[in-house]
């Protein structure tokens, strides 16, 4: 019986030793990886789409809510846009999403009835419908990921959803369009 305990103890210690060696090898492999920066997945599937919202200047006031990843978008005056139109020019990943415009009428903050001409306040924001799968896109890129690992490089992987947003308005309509603070 004492001999069996010695054998089992030896097997246990051998397992601990092999586990330690395996952990050491894994740590050496992990620490030998070099950070290679950011890699955007899905850039090859980018498309541009124009989305228009039509309103009546003087009767409606448009407040734009920035709720999309490209928060550096600015409101641009553009003579090619018809008067009374807010035009979003959106660069997006067509395999994953479809951009849409969401809008609703803001209700006044006070209970009083407005006196005199009062423009309706319309809230406008860019929304998305998901049409694809992040996992499917990631699996399509697995060869690039594995190649990077073989070269001992690791990236910060990001999926391209909306990469750029431009909001254009005719200069005559610009006084009726503002960004939400």
Structure description:
This protein has 181 residues and is α/β, with parallel strands linked by helices. Helices cover 25% and strands 40% of the residues. The protein contains three helices and ten strands, in the order αβββββββααβββ. The strands form three sheets. The protein has a four-stranded mixed β-sheet with strand order 2-5-9-4, with no helix packed on it. A four-stranded mixed β-sheet has the order 6-7-3-10, with no helix packed on it. A two-stranded parallel ribbon has the order 1-8. The radius of gyration is 28 Å and the shape is elongated. The termini are far apart. The model has no long low-confidence stretch (mean pLDDT 84).
What are the key terms here?
four-stranded mixed beta sheet; elongated; 3 helices; 40% strand; alpha/beta; 181 residues; 10 strands
């Amino acid at each position: 019986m004492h001999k069996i305990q010695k054998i089992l103890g030896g097997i246990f210690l051998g397992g601990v030793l092999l586990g330690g060696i395996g952990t050491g090898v894994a740590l050496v492999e992990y620490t030998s990886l070099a950070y290679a920066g950011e890699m955007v997945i899905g850039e090859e599937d980018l498309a541009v789409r124009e989305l228009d919202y039509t309103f009546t200047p003087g009767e409606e006031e448009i407040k734009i809510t920035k709720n999309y990843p490209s928060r550096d978008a600015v409101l641009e005056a553009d003579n090619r846009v018809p008067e009374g139109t807010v035009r979003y020019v959106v660069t997006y990943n067509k395999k994953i999403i479809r951009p849409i415009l969401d809008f609703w009428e803001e209700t006044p903050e006070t209970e009083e009835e407005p006196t005199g001409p009062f423009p309706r306040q319309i809230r406008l924001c860019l929304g998305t419908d998901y049409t694809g799968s992040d996992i499917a896109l990631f699996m399509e890129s697995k060869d690039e990921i594995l190649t990077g690992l073989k070269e001992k490089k690791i990236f910060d992987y990001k999926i391209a959803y909306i990469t750029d947003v431009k909001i254009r308005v005719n200069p005559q309509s610009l006084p009726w369009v503002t960004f939400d603070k």
